[in-house]
Amino acid sequence: MDLLALELFFVGLLGLASLAIAFVSGTVIWNLFRGQR
Predict the structure, then answer these.
(1) How many CA within 13 A on the CB side of residue 25?
(2) pLDDT (tens digit per residue) in 10-36
(3) Residue 12 to residues 3, 4, 22, 31, 37, Cα–Cα distance (Å)
(4) Alpha carbon 2 to chain centroid distance?
């Protein structure tokens, strides 16, 4: 397997993981902010 393909795969996986973390934290913060009102 090509090393560049492996690197691109892991970079894409890292990007997906960071997007999922940002989405979950944004949802949690939004629910906390909505629960205060």
Answers:
(1) 6
(2) 999 999 999 999 999 999 999 999 988
(3) 14, 12, 15, 29, 38
(4) 26
CA 2/CA 17 separation, integer angstroms? 23
Q: What pTM does this model have?
A: 0.69
Give the Cα separation of 2 and 13 in Å (integer): 17
In angstroms, how far is the first alpha carbon of the chain from the final one?
54
Q: Does the pLDDT at position 7 exceed 90?
A: yes
Question: Which letter does DSSP use for residue 2 in this model?
Answer: -
